[in-house]
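Recap from last week: sequence in, structure out.
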Amino acid sequence: MTLTAAKPHPIYLAGRWVESDDVLTVLNPADPAKPAGATFHATPEQYEEAVAAAVRAFEVTRTLPAYERGRILREISAGIKARREELGRLIALEAGKPIRDALIEVDRATLTFRLGAEEAERMVGEVIPLDLMPSSKGRVGITRRFAAGPVAAISPFNFPLNLAAHKLAPAIAAGCSIVLKPPSKDPLTMLTVAEIVDAAGVPEGAVSILPMSRELGDRMVADDRFKVLTFTGSPSVGWRMKERAGKKKVVLELGGNAGVIVDKSADLDWAVKRILVGAFTYSGQVCISVQRMYLHEDIREAFMDRFLAGVAGLRQGDPLEPDTDIGPMVDDTAAGRTQRWVDEAVALGGRLLAGGRADGTFFPPTVLENVPVSAQVCSNEAFAPLVVVFGFTDFEDAIRQVNDSAFGLQTGVFTNDLANAWRGFGELEVGGVIVNDIPTYRIDHMPYGGVKDSGLGREGLRWAIEDMTDIRIMVLASPG
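Predicted structure tokens:
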């Protein structure tokens, strides 16, 4: 299927390409007056058809042999790689992500599906001795994982390809059918990937990729025909979904308010270089974007001189230009909220060191200090190109300040003091501690997820497959 301005892209319903009367126009965040393309919202009838097909297809996918699941995933990986430039440009157009970062996202998706193939082929169980007391003599247990059932998946706008891949790849690997609701802001990327999925020969009905209204998405959350719900998005939406999900398994990858600690022993040049990436990549619209920065007072001035010089050197502009560092925010609403939060921080006594003023959907890299922790930019997820600076003299106090948050996704700790590295690992209330790098670091086979308001469960292929499967034990007894 080739996307044209004149014809909306059809949606992928259980192996068929269909249309509806509800056209969805996809805007270009860098130039909202010029749409990136169009597709359709699924109708309630199309949703019902997709779910019924997923239920039927599960009887096929749950017994699909590992070599076949592996083949499908490898072919999807190869198909994404072959269309790298096309997919990268599409992400830049409909998500506003700088093309350099968009191409990296495509490369990560290529890896994610390849890793899915490998995990499909090593879903091993274990043998458990059960003869721990006389009445259990002659018995042994064998465990195996079985696909849980059809999966309902909802993915976010900020990584329209790779975060959807982290739902689709483990579902196929586990032997589950799946209905994926891509983000309405940028659904064209996954609808293009659906062409690759279809060509790979997934079982009929096993995969549907359907943009939906909020009402249909709500129906999917509560639909008891699904046995797993996996959602990536905002905490307020995610936790309400869990309340409505019924008895199905729920995996929530939610928001963050990521902190980074720069100890006095840190390599400052490296820390500055990486935190510039962590705070401002994709205009901060990353749930593990650096939002709070804790600097040891001994190095604070030296660090800030270098950091602010680095901020001044960042180039904001057209996401299709290869030298653009920062593109637009996803829409006017996001830029407007960021402006209100920055204005509030300044009104509460905060000092603006860089940026701070929106220009349409573009918001410049913004640095604040002396902001009270009660301000929105400190206490909530900004999801914006801004970072707030704090100081500390005692490493334990830095840990306390990072932990003073409703969120707990990942934290970065720049230090060359091994004791502080271990202390951070032991005491930071987060899902991941990244030593000598930013909390924004992730590679796709590692366990990824948070605690507190940041979510429930873990992604990363092996861990996502665990959530999409049920463990079963067979007990073998020797008569006599």
